[in-house]
Amino acid sequence: MGFTQVFDYVAGKADWFANGLPREGKRANSPQIGDLVRRDVPVCHLDDRVGEVLQRVQTAGWDQCIVVNSAGIVLGLLRGEALHAAPEAPVALAMESGPTTIRPNRMPRDIREHMRQQGATSVVVTTPAGQLMGVVERQDIERCLAPAMQPHEGRYRPQRGTASVEIGYKLSCEEHNPSALVCYAKQAEDAGFTFAMLSDHYHPWIAEQGQSPFVWSVIGSIAQATERLRVGTGVTCPLIRMHPAIVAQAAATAAALLPGRFMLGVGTGENLNEHIFGDYWPPGASRRAMLEEAVTLIRCLWQGGLRSHQGQYYTVENAQLYTLPELLPPVLVAASGMRSAHMAGRLGDGLITVGVHAKLVDRFIAAGGAGKPRYTELSVCWAPEEAEARRLAHARWPIAGMQGALLSDLRLPSHFAQAASTITEEEVAQAVICGPDPARHIAAITQAAKAGYTHVWLHQIGPDQAGFFQFYAHEVLPKLH
Amino acid sequence: MSMEIEREEVRRMVEDGAQLIEVLPRKEYEAEHLPGALNIPLQQLDRQTTAPLQPDQPVIVYCYDWQ
Fold first, then answer.
1. CB contact under 8 A, B62 and A128
2. How does residue A108 score in pLDDT terms, banded at 50, 70 and 90?
3. What does the DSSP 8-state code read for residue A328?
4. A192-246 tens-digit pLDDT
5. Which pLDDT does position A157 carry in this prediction?
6. Shared domain check, A188 and A136
7. Which ranges of A95-137 would DSSP assign to H, the alpha helix?
8. What is the DSSP letter of A85?
9. Is residue A335 part of a domain?
10. Tag placement on chain A: N or C end, fewer CB within 10 Å?
């Protein structure tokens, strides 16, 4: 037909999708089994010794191991009693041969039914050629399909371009004392906000913000003061100042106090908060690797039982969480760049960003985030007059005009104050919706929805939270529904 | 005669302007496909359906897998 250069991608779209690459089409936003695969499952070979394999499996925090050949083709499964008997025996004699495997393009709902019927807790996922991709756990499928992940039926529209999003409120721990935060959580619930996110800092960004309570204590009080409001960390950093095993315990306790209404938002943190023990501040790539290991460890501890972990960054010996919630919270992963968005898609049960970034949403979806919620924070400053709102936003939240490494790498509130001295009121007003015009607030939320976000939470800068609640309850929220 | 290529090569070539063609039936293409791919079902692959393609640019064809 006149073409001189014709190529055949023989592995085809099965291979493309199996590797978490972007897809288009009617089903592109629906989660598939490939999006839920845990790729860090341990593997072993036929001539390995069972005892050695057991040690590796326990260290990695797993309870099974997949037997593969040198090409990665799945041959069998080693788990349960077989993993604990005859440590000197070769894997070939102990394994279950030819386990059930599924392909990554299957729909989670179908697989859940099959697993329920079989009483299976996990299933091996392979490419059409039989090469191991990982395992999918039934709890991940249940979580993906559970109402807790999609609590807004009828309003939840994962497709890009709709204006239906769930609206939340930011409990700004840098600006308000703990009693006020609890009070605002209740007021947010009464005003019609369905969720609230709490920032987790050791220091405020600048001294003028004035506060920085211990977030987990505040969450405990909010649990008692509210009835429906879903509550999340937005975000906490389980890397340096707080060991992930402690965050696992804190989040499990929060989820027990807020049944079905707690979300663990995590990120790679800021030097501002993480430097206080004199630890080295690692570069972004290292912090992303630390976060990946931390989230894996947190999820491992949430499985209950006695757990040990010897990873690249963290060691846990014989740890067991005795307080576990009935419903484990989703782990939402924060992203400010393309690499962290990719990691969030692979690792998280949802995405968190600040501001509107369609490309980050795209990358999150392409990396495995299809069908998962996408949260973003928008800063606003309501005041009766726009000029007053602009002045207040600039005085209280100049970091709205900062970007990139400044935010993550400066060490002290005084350093942020120095950096902020170069930022103009106009620059802050570009990033913050200032003033009493509801159309501007609605337009910003609609823009976020069009970029693919499913959840937007508003951060009202400054002390006048009551005025903000009244304005949103009467002039913004009714027009969004 | 076509040459077999792998995923990374597909990504690189598409970035350089190669044309992606999914040869599966339209329904399967509509459900999901590679970003930017066109659909020409195998049975309809002829001079007329390929007329919109650029003859001087590489063409990459694919289906679900090799089976």
1. no
2. confident
3. P
4. 999 999 999 999 999 999 999 999 999 999 999 999 999 999 999 999 999 999 9
5. 34
6. no
7. 108-118
8. S
9. yes
10. C
Q: Which residues contact A369 (CB under 8 A, 6 or more apart)?
A: A35, A344, A345, A348, A350, A351
Buried b (16+ CB within 10 A) or exposed e, A318-332: ebebeebbebbbbbb
Residues on B contacting A at a C-beta cutoff of 8 Å: 1-7, 9-11, 13, 18, 22, 29-37, 46-47, 50, 53, 55-67
Q: Is the pLDDT of residue A85 over 90?
A: no
Interface pTM (ipTM) of the complex? 0.95
Burial class of residue A106 (count of CB atoms within 10 Å of its CB; 0-12, 13-18, 19+):
middle
Q: Measured between CB atoms, which of B31, B50, B63 is closest to A12?
A: B63
Least confident of A12-21, A74-83, A381-390, A396-405: A12-21
CA-based nearest residue to A200, from A160, A224, A172: A172
pLDDT at position A1, please?
62
Per the CATH hierarchy, to which homologous superfamily does domain B7-62 belong? Rhodanese-like domain (3.40.250.10)
Indicate if the pLDDT at residue A306 is higher than 70.
yes
Please list, in sequence order, all residues whose beta carbon lies within 8 angstroms of the beta carbon of residue A315, skipping any fewer than 6 positions away: A309
The pair of three-digit structure tokens given for residue A416, joined into one six-digit string = 């942020």
Say what the alpha-carbon torsion angle A76, A296, A338, A206 is, to the nearest 10 degrees.
180
Residue in B47, B65, B67 to test binding to A, most A beta-carbons within 10 Å: B65
Q: Which residue did the predictor score with more confidence, A253 or A404?
A: A253
The domain boundary, picked from A111, A144, A177, lies at A144
Give residue A109's region: left, alpha or beta (phi > 0; psi -120 to 50). alpha
DSSP-derived pairing of the beta strands A74-79 and A64-68 = antiparallel
Q: Which of A303, A327, A349, A296 is nearest to A31 (CA)?
A: A349
Domain limits for position A352: 166-480
Contact A292/A262 with Cβ under 8 angstroms? no
Domains in chain A, number: 2
What CA–CA distance (Å, rounded) separates A135 from A41?
A: 7
How would residue A151 be classed by pLDDT, with cut points 50, 70 and 90?
Answer: very low
Q: Residue A270: what are its φ and ψ, rounded to 5°? A: -130, 145
Q: Which amino acid is at A398?
A: P
Closest approach of B2 to chain A, Cα-based (Å):
5
Asked if residue A131 and residue A174 are part of one domain, the reply reads: no
Q: How far apart are CA A56 and CA A182, in angstroms?
A: 45
Contacts of B20 (CB under 8 A, 6+ apart): B10, B14, B34, B36, B37, B38, B60, B62
